[in-house]
UniProtKB/TrEMBL annotation, chain A:
Domain 4Fe-4S ferredoxin-type as annotated: residue spans: 231-261, 305-336
Protein name: 4Fe-4S ferredoxin
Family matches, as InterPro entries: 4Fe4S_Fe-S-bd, 4Fe4S_Fe_S_CS, Helical_ferredxn
Alphabetical UniProt keywords: Iron, Iron-sulfur, Metal-binding
Iron in keyword set: yes
Pfam families with a match to the protein in the record: Fer4_22
Keyword set includes Transcription: no
Bilayer-crossing regions: none
Organism whose genome encodes this protein: Candidatus Desantisbacteria bacterium CG_4_10_14_0_8_um_filter_48_22
GO molecular function terms listed in the Swiss-Prot or TrEMBL record: iron-sulfur cluster binding; metal ion binding
Automatic annotation (TrEMBL), chain B:
Biological classification of the source: Bacteria, Candidatus Desantisiibacteriota
Official protein name in the record: Heterodisulfide reductase subunit F
Record-annotated FAD-binding FR-type domain positions: 6-107
Keyword Iron-sulfur among record annotations: yes
UniProt source species: Candidatus Desantisbacteria bacterium CG_4_10_14_0_8_um_filter_48_22
BP terms from Gene Ontology: pyrimidine nucleotide biosynthetic process
Automatic annotation (TrEMBL), chain C:
Name this polypeptide is given: 4Fe-4S ferredoxin
Keyword Lyase: no
Record-linked PROSITE patterns: 4FE4S_FER_1, 4FE4S_FER_2
Ranges for domain 4Fe-4S ferredoxin-type: 171-201, 223-253
InterPro entries: 4Fe4S_Fe-S-bd, 4Fe4S_Fe_S_CS, Helical_ferredxn
GO MF entry, a single one: iron-sulfur cluster binding
Keyword line: Iron, Iron-sulfur, Metal-binding
Amino acid sequence: MKIINKSEFLGLMEKWISSPGLIAPVNVAQTFRSADKEKNLIVFKKIETKDEVLADYLNTVKPVKDFFLPPSTVFDYERKDEGYNFNLSEVDGKETIIFGLRPCDAKSITLLDKVFSEDSEYKDSNYAKKREKTVLVGLACTSPDIACFCTSMGISPFSIAGLDALIINFKDSYVINTVTDKGKNLLGSLGKEAGREIDEEIKTLEESVKLKIKKTCNTSKNLESSFESEEYWTKVSNSCLSCGVCTFLCPSCYCFDLSDESAKRIRCWNGCVFLRFALMSSGENPRATKKLRYRHRVFHKFKYFREKFGENLCVGCGRCIRHCPVKIDIAEVVNNA
Amino acid sequence: MHENIYLPNLCKIEKITDETPDVKTFKLAFLDESVRNNFTYKPGQFVELSVLGEGEAPFCLASSPTRRGFIECSIKKMGKATQAIHDLLEEGDVVGIRGPYGNGFSVEEMKGNDLLFIAGGIGLAPLRSLLNTTLDNRTDFGKITIVNGARTPKDLVYKYEYETWQKAKNTSLHLTVDCADESWSCMVGVVPKALKEIKPCCDNAVAIICGPPIMIKFTLPVLIEMGFRPEDIVTTLERKMQCGFGKCGHCMVGGIYVCKDGPVFNYAQIEKFKEEF
Amino acid sequence: MIKKLQEEVKKLLAEKKVNMVIGYARAGDAINAIPYFIANPEECGALIWDKTCIYNLTNYLIDMRNKKVGIIVKGCDVRSVVCLIQENQIKKENVIVIGLQCAGVFDKKGAELGAVGRERAAKCKSCNVHTPPLFDILIEDKEMNQKVLQQEDSYKEIREIENKSPEERFDYWKKELSKCIKCYACRQVCPLCYCPVCVADQTMPQWFSRSLSLEGNFAWNTVRAFHLAGRCIDCGECERVCPMGIPLRKINKKLEKEVKELFGHESGVDAEKKPLFSTFSKDDPEEFIK
């Protein structure tokens, strides 16, 4: 691992703003009165000036899947002779650097890859192109909150899964861990060797951060046995509003709608928690109750996806718990199932 | 196939046949010659047909892959996309087709067996694909019995095929309607009742059933009573489908994507689904 | 106060006057409050009442309209019960309202931290229903009656925006509404958004595009505000649940102000009255008819 002075690194980041382009967490809360200052709203945004980039935050509201699977992708077309001309390329050829994503978000991208870019028969070409053109530079997490449970989901606040490079905030420097070739190409020449002592201190730091995470999720639990328990699933989903916040803010949820409107084909976010998600045109709705929909959500994340792809469809980022209007806690739901 | 999995290939409508007051059959040919000549599929698979700008919906292929150069879909008017299909399309228009998707019937495994086709209303569409495939390879299969039911004589589909099927070797066609009219001379009654009268033999036989849920609900026990094993009773499941290739999540039943792992399932598999369908 | 509340609820359930009572309990994290559905008298011990009880529970009444339900409400919440009765969505005979006297609850952040001394929610600063206007059982807060509850001008922020130029206002709302992700949490949490098929979800015909755009966000938020005009009771839940922090209360409050000025109407106060837009009177303003 290498170590670099913070101001030096920030100077390099400034260069990235113009070339090739930088996306990083920014606080976009628009304060109308000074009393609203506390309403932080941290999202990933294309950076215009280096002062926008945040140094200290928990996590963004919207996850990084926003860039690879945007809320809506529009393919437009026009009539041409006998047929139609489709606007195929929605991805421009430019490279981008996404900086500041947490290891939980980075891990979610590896899960999405399994569905969208690693499926050779039905590869989402736009998604794959974007993945190729993007360099993911993560920022290790040093102050998790009570909703975080990444340590139960096979990663840690310093995890490198899905990242091209990981930056660790260390005293007044940044320690750089380049993971892939893309990461090495971007950052390999920076800084100087950290040395064994610092490597050890980083390890100790990682362990101390892991200890801060109190919430656990027992993913080895056999959910199957609770499937039939109407009482349990009614109880946990009683307060659910079927509102969609958990699905839209989840970094690994990927269900979508494919629909046609005049001169457009649209691929947009959708989620199994919505009432009409499984509704058929005959009027039948196989998951007409909140109980059925919530059970399906939990089972998809903690059973079905794992059976198909080997990993749970959850990274423990805690957004669903933090932002759920009625504070439904998915980790507790799994633990008590 | 299109490079982008979300965008369709284009097809011209060669012929529209009015089957019943709310069902039309569309005969389509791909605009692109190489796609038209090389497009192949299995009976029981489906395509996503789109009226560009209006909507897209899944329809099983009613044509048989043994007959190349065109595909056929039979479409019932039900929602936004099918309304657009019925009201806006004319012969010569261009539509989008994505597919073929789904697992299809295991035709190879059915070879050597007797086949019992049980259809209700438009459920005959995917069965027609399999039926014509077997008739085009007649000697590979045993006795074929077709039981086709509908609410009234007007709701029967593919009437122009009945004579051919009736005349095929070792093949019998039985028609039944729930409510007859003066012109009707065949059986009257629901499909399970007709089945009991016909008494098909279950030895070395596979039953393929497709129709409205209520028909299946009452026909299934009759088949079991006649001695058919659940693994020898095959059907196609219906669910809301959008992408067709197992990603959008709409058609999930438990951990299974009906569009990708189905829509053809046998009853031994369906009994294992914990989630109701 | 909590003891009295638990006793009353226990009595209601024991006497089988209701099938279920909806109230608040403590979440697993020991900080937040969560909605609590009680069917048995023994479960009443878990009921809580404090400044973290920010939710408007009346949202759940719509799905239970055929059952006899007890509901624990603050003054702001019960106004939506009044509206639901006015609009024939629930029958008064089926609902037993347990009203709580309330001096104010935390804002969203405060509720999450459970911290004492946090600011009251913005809506509480202009509250005039510290005692619920409708109740079957009242749980009094003896301490509250002694506090001096200053009521701020509830339209202060609205006037600030009104005084801006159209360009400044448009700019402000462009910035705010560009954040909208159409998650529809605002609609789902609102007790008065109960349309079986929301206009945004209709496919035949399709009114809203499925794609995300600034125009679409403007359309959605303004249509929702207009559908709530004369009905919204400013419980503030929509703004609380919005994950993107859009100041939705401002939009609804602007229409609330218009309705007050034009028709002298306040929603959710009198259960006998008809909803505003289902009636007309000869004195209704007609300046727009020339």
